[in-house]
Structures are given as C-alpha cells and as structure tokens.
Amino acid sequence: MSEQGSESPDAAPAGGGPDAGDGRRGTGPALEVESLFLRRGDRVVFDDLSARFPAGKISVVTGPSGSGKTTLLRVIACLLRPDRGRVLADGHDLVGLPRADVREFRERVGMLFQGGALLDSMTVFDNVALPLREHTRESEDAIRRQVHTAFRAVGLDRVDALLPGELSGGMVKRAGLARALIGAPDILLCDEPFSGLDPPTVRRVEELLVDINRRTRATLILTSHHMATTRRMADQLVMLLEGGALTGPPETLIAQGDSQVLDFFDQPTEGAEARRAEARG
Fold first, then answer.
1. 182-214: b or e for each residue (b if 16 or more CB lie within 10 Å)?
2. pLDDT, tens digit, for every residue of 258-278?
3. Quick check: is 268 in a domain?
4. 80 lies in a domain?
5. How is residue 266 annotated by DSSP?
6. How many domains does the chain contain in total?
7. 29: domain range?
8. Res 1: pLDDT
9. What is the DSSP code (8-state) at residue 158?
10. What's the pTM value of the predicted model, to 2 decimals?
11. Tell me, what CATH number does 99's domain have?
12. Do 234 and 250 form a contact (C-beta atoms < 8 A)?
C-alpha cells in the first residue's frame, strides 16, 4: 500500500497575539520533528527527517527549492500529517492527536503565509479580525481593540479601510503578520517573509520579527533563502538536504566547513581558497 501524507482536519490555525501582557502563555515550546517520512503523490518529501527548534528562539529553515520547507511548517502546525514519525512540542507527540486536541494546539500557532494570503475583497481590518470572528465569541469592541493592538505591534497605522491591493509589499507582510499575532500565539511560523521585498524593507521586517520574538518569547520558525538575514537573526539554522538536515547555530555550521552550508552563505570552501591562491600566485 502506498504511503500518502494526509491533510489533517480543520483548515487553518486560529492565529496568535502581539503583547506579553495580553493573555500570553509564556515562553513558546521546544519543537522537534523526529524520523519524519512523508510522501506526496509519487514524490518522497521527507525520508527520516529529524530537526530541533529551541524554545522561545528564532529558527530559520532553508534548503534547495522543493526540499520541503513550506511542507515542514504545515507539518509542525498540524495542517499536514506525516506518514511516519513524530512531531513533538515540549516532548508531547502531536501526531495522531484527537481533533479537539489538534484544534487546541492550533490555537497556540500563528502563521504568516507566503505572500501574506490576505483576502482581496476584504479590508485590512476585516482580514486581521477574521480569526477572532470565526473562532471566538468576542464582541466587536474587543475585536477592534485586539486588531489595533496587532497593528501597533507591526507598525501599521490608518489601514483599517484599505484593501490589500492598496498596500505596498512590505505593508502586506506586516498585515499578514498582524493577523498571525491575533490571539497570543506562543508558536509563530513564517513562510518566506522576505520574498519579493526590497533590501530596506527586508531589514525592517527582519527587525520586526526579532523584536516580536524578544517581546513575546514565542518560538519563531521561518523559511528563507535570504542568507544575510539568516546569519543576523537565526539562533538555529535547519538546512534541509537530500537525506536529512544539518542543524545548529549558523556560525557553528559555518565553522564546521560543510560545503553546502558555505555555499548558502557564499563563504569560500577550502578548495575554492586554494584555487584563488593559485590564481593569485
């Protein structure tokens, strides 16, 4: 019988919230995937993948296109169930949980989707308020307060009545992040938050994510191909490779001299250095 990754019940996490004093749960959990196997159609995405994501820290997942970076976020969020293996939050296995427990876990997760994933026909305010309206019984006054708190947390102002198409690329990212922060998550997953942004905006979004991590102590996992931001902000690097993953602090992995890590950070390998010295000589 062929092995197929299956979509878990209920489509999306409810989201999370911006301020440590706003019903926060405390430091986010340590997360771990252990011996994951996942097949999508005829393609094996993960084959015995294991990686750790430290509690309350920033982890960056990188790797070649098609290596499963976005899929890994979906597995961690319990949006996709692996065929084999475990997904652990503070040592508790999330795979195979009853539906009610899966929903409870997703309430701890905020997710910034690639491109923001805002609904074009809804105002920015309604986009950010959507998780509260769908998953809680909060009054409109309470929702308004929480949405504006999220806007302040990401540096947005006077955007309530705007449509997503009226925002710049950086503002779309911020609006998507505000929606992810609704509900005080202790896990924040960000899929390619720097894609399509100019360098100054990349730096602003980077600083925003670092600030949110420090203020909320949420466990933050993001996917990225951006080597400069990864080196500046990552406490842990998870590099997906054929046959597994390399994990550790970026500077530690660079010091170990693995050619795949050095290529990502555009660092010269020993062989390249020798060739350059020979050319100079």
1. bbbbbbbbbbbbbeebeeebbebbbebbeebbe
2. 888 888 777 665 554 444 445
3. no
4. yes
5. T
6. 1
7. 6-248
8. 42
9. S
10. 0.82
11. 3.40.50.300
12. yes
